[in-house]
Amino acid sequence: MIYKEKFKIGLKDVWKGKEVSNKAILEYLEDIASYHSDSVGYGINTTDSTHLTWLLLDWKVKIIKRPEYGQTLEIHTWSRYIVKCYAYRDFEIYDENNNLCVIASSKWLLINNQTAKIAKVEQEMADKYESELDKSVFEEKEIEKIKEPENYKSSIIYQVKRKDIDVIGHVHNLYYLDIAYETLPQEVYEQRPFNEIRIMYKKEIKLGDKVKCKYAYQNNKHIVGIKSQDEKTLHAIIELQ
Predict the structure, then answer these.
(1) What is the SS3 assignment for 61-88?
(2) Strands 210-218 and 234-240
(3) Contact, 129 vs 87, CB < 8 A?
(4) What is the pLDDT tens value at each position of the chain, 241 positions in all?
(5) CA-to-CA distance for 93 and 54, rounded, in angstroms?
(6) Contact (Cβ atoms closer than 8 angstroms) between residue 113 and residue 67
(7) Ramachandran assignment for 41, one of left (phi > 0), alpha (psi -120 to 50 degrees), beta (any other)
(8) Whole-prediction pTM
(9) Neighbours of 221 (CB within 10 A)
């Protein structure tokens, strides 16, 4: 089942001119994934009855052509496959001329919000998503893990603020990209927009936490590791290219 929605690029969605920003693209993808789950009975509106929620583990995004302010986009998403407690979801974004602009893949973990434990995706639930087993935007079936660099060039300390927190009390998925941008050296930051994005989420960050954000450049990729202040816990790794 391919689920489709239209999104219009607003003023807050563009950066440094008319082009859509990477954060806006991630926001569209997150929203349509939620709308799809709502439509099959496992979204945010049914969490109180099902006690199930999806936790995002990975993003892999490639921008092919960057749409501009005012354009109406058509976004397609589908469940690529579901195994045990995990689900893989892919996306395509098309502009008004039906040009393919963005492809993306993601990995999600099913959680019971009452017990805060991992939940198995039962067959009845999987059937409602009608996975498109033969349709993938990338050649790789799995999203490859990001290896943390052995050496970093610079770092900052970031204090989590109330504006960063989502409905379940953790730093919102989108704001990891914001934190990564804050970490980049100025000359790298000015190179935006980056057309390939990888985010691997490892451990949630909560209100009031201070995190150590470390920057490295290797294999033509700008890498930000977000760690606890004592560096014992890895919260996320972001790759930009």
Answers:
(1) EEECCCCECCCEEEEEEEEEEEECCEEE
(2) unpaired
(3) yes
(4) 999 999 999 999 998 889 999 999 999 999 999 999 999 998 888 888 888 989 999 999 999 999 999 999 999 999 999 999 999 999 999 999 999 999 999 999 999 988 989 999 999 999 999 999 999 999 988 899 999 999 999 999 999 999 999 887 899 999 999 999 999 999 999 988 899 999 999 999 999 899 999 999 999 999 999 999 999 999 999 999 9
(5) 22
(6) no
(7) left
(8) 0.94
(9) 16
Quick one: tokens of 137?
A: 């935007």
Structure tokens at 49: 């009855």
